[in-house]
Amino acid sequence: MRLKWFRKAGRIHIAPPAILAVLYAALICVGAGLLKLPVATPAPITWSDAIFTATSAVTVTGLAVLDTGSDLTIFGQAVIMVLIQLGGLGLMTFAVLVLMMLGLPLNMSHRVFLREDLNQTSIHDLLLLVRRILKFVLLCELLGVVLLSSVFVPEFGWAHGLWQALFHTVSAFNNAGFSLFPDSLSQWVDNPVINLVVPALFIFGGLGFVVIADAWEVRRWQRLSLHSKLMIVGTMALILWSVTAFAALEWTNPRTLGGLDGTGARLWASWFQGVTTRTAGFNTIDIGAIHDGTAMMFMSLMVIGAGSTSTAGGIKVTTFIVLLLATVAFFKRRTQLHVFGRSLGPEEVMKVLALAMVSILTVFLSIFLITLSHDGNFLDLAFEVTSAFGTVGLSRGATAELDGLGRAVIITVMFIGRVGPLTLGFFLATRATPRVGYPSSRVYLG
Fold first, then answer.
1. Distance, CA of 277 to CA of 63 (rounded, Å)
2. How many domains does the chain have?
3. 363 within 8 A of 385, measured Cβ to Cβ
4. Which of the ends of the chain has fewer CB neighbours closer than 10 A, N or C?
5. What is the pLDDT of residues 285-318, one digit of tens each?
6. Is this model's pTM higher than 0.70 or not?
7. Is 52 a member of any domain?
8. Is 44 exposed, middle or buried (0-12, 13-18, 19+ CB in 10 A)?
């Protein structure tokens, strides 16, 4: 009895976010192993290439050291697509779907992990949410394949065209940014179908499944949850700002918008590149040719990212909005945040501050580390790190120039960006009940 009690008492309890991080790491290892198989590539690749590519796919980033269209076979491309789908929607979501199809019961630990993977606060109605996610994903990706086939099939034939449509649909909906073309989607810079379907896929994927489920069930603005309202308003505001700012900054740049033929092509490119920056990582213009001011604007958008419980990264739109609301509340001497007839308490603000601080430290430390072994353009390196953290995938050409340390830094940042910066806090921090109380004091700030 004592031995049994000792083992129980000595058992290490790991927080669910940490376990999910380990599962994502295991998926990366499996993906890298599959990419190393001879059937996956026409020519052998290094383990560094395989691990980097698998990490970029699982974290739905899109940064690439290989040309997905030419350096990988159909099998290798299929591996990338599956890794994108698993990484984008969440491992526990797929695990629960498999258990449901097999008719197996879900115990409490499964529900706790699923709650963490979907970033929920309650374990109630999780299975209903999973079913809605599955239906929504299948519907969006089916429509995406059908619509994109109208562009790719006439140009590449039925077999190749359908594969192109399927791959880019999965990549777009999961905000991955992987493309089978070396110049991403630049060939279709003024194609209406590409410029409408692909952004629609990653915008819906970036809103978050909770928002989509809420909107589908309620269908009235007044009855939407506060989270859904903040996500919808925030997304629309950021899209308006990014598209307008990009057009204003790059309209006369001969290497980007200024080099396109006609106002229509410039407007399409402004729309596409403006909306893709926060999440997806596709491009229809040369990112390396944009002005430095545009690059800084892009970096701020990549840090913000998209929605919670979505397929995108970043600190999330709602986090950014709460930071703004907290700033306004401070100057107005308010102790609570008020928005849309609801209030947010100190706990939400503390979580947002922790998330923002961990994110800033992660980005700054990563930029410092990557500059230790690279003497290239500082802005290009900072852009690369920010893109990795936001799991965006846009690059100014620094990816191919990374050495071993640089790749290790980017891999780590992509992983942190996908599992969530707060997961890093679970690894570094321990929860303990304070045994001693201390008198309050004052520190002068600002």
1. 13
2. 1
3. yes
4. C
5. 999 999 999 999 999 999 999 887 777 778 889 9
6. yes
7. yes
8. exposed
